[in-house]
Amino acid sequence: MARPDKAADVAEITDKFRASSAAVLTEYRGLTVKQLKTLRRSLGGNADYAVVKNTLTKIAANEAGISELDDLFAGPTAVAFVTGDPVESAKALRDFAKENPALIIKGGVLDGKALSADEIKKLADLESREVLLAKLAGALKAKPSQAAAVFQALPSKLVRTVEALREKVEQGGAGTPAPAEDAE
């Protein structure tokens, strides 16, 4: 029978998995407490970085409907439960791992889909959500304005062409038929 304190820990971790948009599993062997504190600070308000017990976390992940991570629960494990932008958290973890090779990104989950360590690194290479949304908004804004310019150009070009033809006819320009009165 499970002890009440362990059952409470599993319930807490399960809630964290369910409340997170992403979770990244790391191995922290060889990092000092000071380095872990720096890592937590670099994640900011986007993620909660917690050292966890493998067995309890594996049970909690399965209860949260995430069974693809079972193989990653080996060795000292810490999980970054991402509640903010997953790209920013992945960048913070990747950058910290570059400076501190003892931190190893094992894998993770994003919106219920399991990710390998390489996929998390690719996620870190993306631009932030705000930048991508701004680019999308700019592209959407540019297309209608370009279309409007084309649609405005057509009538104005037609008016200029008709006006040029009218002036040419009034001046009796070459290549235009003579008026019927002059043909007599």
UniProtKB/TrEMBL annotation:
Keywords: Ribonucleoprotein, Ribosomal protein, RNA-binding, rRNA-binding
UniProt name for this protein: Large ribosomal subunit protein uL10
Complex and partners: Part of the ribosomal stalk of the 50S ribosomal subunit. The N-terminus interacts with L11 and the large rRNA to form the base of the stalk. The C-terminus forms an elongated spine to which L12 dimers bind in a sequential fashion forming a multimeric L10(L12)X complex.
GO biological process: translation
Family: Belongs to the universal ribosomal protein uL10 family.
Function: Forms part of the ribosomal stalk, playing a central role in the interaction of the ribosome with GTP-bound translation factors.
PANTHER family: 39S RIBOSOMAL PROTEIN L10, MITOCHONDRIAL
MF annotations from Gene Ontology: large ribosomal subunit rRNA binding; structural constituent of ribosome
The species this protein was found in: Kitasatospora cineracea
Keyword Kinase set for record: no
A GO cellular-component term linked to this record: large ribosomal subunit
